[in-house]
Here is the input.
Amino acid sequence: MSAASSGRMFLSHNFTLPNTVLPALSRAEFVQVFIDGLADQAEIRCRPLDNPHWIVAVTFDDSLTPQSVGQLCVAALAKARSPQLDEGEQTRPRILALGGTKTTPATSDSSDTLQTGDWGVDVVETLEPDSFLAGIQWDSISASKPADSVFKIEGQV
Here is the structure.
């Protein structure tokens, strides 16, 4: 996959669930969710990042849209987390993938730093997606950007 024919997104993890619902994932476990969960997607490659905020780099062929890759990421996390959920759990955790393209200059030319044009995607596990989105002012943030430069994908464990 050449750089000219690929897209790149970095994933971070925002875990707001009580540990009684699902255990928190370590960085290594979070990375492995996507390496394993997207392994059957020939157009996608995942690798860990050495970055304090971003955890996983997902590189994808330009035949895929960032939104479709985000949907695959949500599905991979839901599939990995589902067996960990107590069968008696009444409230099923929600997964959000909140993506946006980087438009400002990069702080470094390191391959582990988000570069201009890359997608930064916050992957959120929460019981209260509406409260989470309100807390970060998602509607205001996303409304101020071109529609093709942001996405919000929701799923359920």
Remarks:
- The CA atoms of residues 39 and 45 lie 8 Å apart.
- The chain has four helices and six strands.
